[in-house]
């Protein structure tokens, strides 16, 4: 069974995954925002396609295409919260999307479809958030796509073709799901507690309930990069809630106004999946006026007014208008932090994380005192060490023979 697991290729995990919708590297941040709202996706991939090259690797007529990275609403929100951009958000949205994507190295990596699962795990442990995998197709479908590329520009935001190929994301969650389906291979490790396996990371990102939300911006950037979250605690380190990059990614760009004006505790309420209370929306607008941040106030009004020129669709399509920047709602969103205990088994924690579509779980005591956090990264590292020992044993057996 171990050898079968080691022989797994990434193409085995990518079966049935949808093709990536692309955004050209010539796009602006505003166009990226529009694509995110239109597609309903958390992320959109940004591609660079060089149509000036007639020869690539000795082949005539092949266009050089590569995924530069990905962008989500969190990237836009943090960008708008910059001191200069908060003064002129509409101008900031005209910035090239590449400026946001290229700020972070290694978030996206390309792998071939015949790459091993262990190669994919190694890339993730090295910091890749998403792996770009070519989708294997039949000769007939390839012929159809070559015909389609003649009538559809590869730079169209609705195109999924690059060099006649389609690609998909491979994420940490995809790999963890596969491991969960193959969990018997790793017995008895999954039955051990996360504490005994030393999977609890005590180096957590925390902010006090009464601290300003803007003070958490560097933490939001780190949490977004590491696919974790920020714990909101009180004076005795009791977990009250969280500021989750995933929750932020379900918002629209006007959430930057809330981060700029509210406390961490109020921002949690603003991010609640039912939408922010009207009194908080009013508080944000009042504080924007007090700080002469009129351009951000105009942006909020534009996004919340379906008849404005800044809105390119109806409230029903984009989900904006009456909920103060909570326009992008997803079934997976939640208002409460997902928690577990040190004595929970690895198997139980994995199931809990997958069920709630999160890449982490807060580890707390019975009184909700914060102990630490367990993440997909720690879990993948545990399984990678086990698989590495299988490889080592296999090599030693071969030497003996």
Automatic annotation (TrEMBL):
UniProt-annotated stretches for the region Disordered: 305-329
From the Swiss-Prot or TrEMBL record, give the protein name: CBS domain-containing protein
UniProt KW Repeat keyword: yes
Keyword terms: CBS domain, Repeat
Q: Which Pfam families match?
A: CBS
Domain named CBS: residues: 345-381
Its source organism is Artemisia annua
For this protein, the record's InterPro entries field holds: AMPK_gamma/SDS23_families (IPR050511), CBS_dom (IPR000644), CBS_dom_sf (IPR046342)
Per the record, what is one GO cellular component?
A: nucleus
């Amino acid at each position: 069974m171990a050898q079968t697991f080691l022989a797994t290729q990434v193409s085995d995990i990518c079966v049935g995954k949808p093709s990536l919708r692309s955004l050209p590297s010539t796009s602006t941040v505003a166009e990226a925002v529009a694509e995110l709202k239109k597609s309903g996706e958390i992320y959109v991939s940004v591609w660079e396609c060089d149509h000036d090259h007639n020869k690539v690797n000795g082949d005539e007529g092949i266009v050089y295409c590569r995924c530069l990275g990905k962008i989500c609403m969190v990237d836009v929100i943090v960008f708008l919260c910059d001191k200069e951009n908060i003064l002129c958000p509409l101008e900031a949205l005209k910035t090239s999307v590449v400026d946001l994507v290229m700020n972070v190295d290694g978030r996206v990596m390309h792998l071939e479809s015949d790459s091993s699962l262990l190669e994919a795990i190694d890339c993730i442990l090295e910091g890749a958030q998403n792996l770009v995998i070519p989708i294997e197709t039949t000769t007939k479908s390839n012929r159809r796509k070559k015909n389609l590329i003649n009538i559809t520009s590869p730079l169209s935001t609705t195109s999924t073709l690059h060099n006649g190929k389609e690609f998909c994301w491979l994420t940490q969650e995809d790999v963890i799901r596969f491991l969960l389906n193959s969990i018997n291979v790793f017995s008895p490790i999954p039955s051990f507690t996360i504490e005994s396996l030393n999977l609890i990371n005590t180096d957590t990102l925390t902010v006090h309930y009464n601290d300003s939300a803007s003070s958490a911006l560097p933490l939001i950037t780190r949490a977004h990069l590491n696919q974790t979250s920020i714990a909101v605690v009180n004076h005795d380190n009791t977990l009250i809630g969280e500021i989750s990059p995933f929750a932020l990614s379900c918002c629209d760009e006007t959430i930057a106004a809330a981060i700029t004006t509210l406390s961490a505790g109020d921002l949690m309420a603003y991010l609640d999946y039912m939408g922010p209370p009207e009194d908080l929306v009013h508080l944000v607008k009042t504080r924007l006026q007090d700080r002469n941040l009129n351009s951000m106030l105009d942006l909020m009004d534009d996004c919340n007014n379906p008849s404005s020129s800044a809105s390119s669709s109806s409230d029903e399509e984009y989900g904006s208008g009456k909920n103060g920047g909570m326009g992008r709602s997803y079934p997976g969103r939640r208002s409460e932090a997902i928690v577990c205990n040190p004595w929970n088994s690895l198997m139980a924690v994995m199931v809990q994380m997958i069920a709630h579509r999160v890449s982490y779980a807060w580890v707390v005591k019975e009184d909700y005192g914060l102990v630490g956090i367990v993440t997909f990264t720690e879990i993948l590292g545990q399984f990678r060490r086990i698989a590495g020992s299988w490889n080592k044993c296999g090599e030693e057996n071969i030497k003996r023979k």
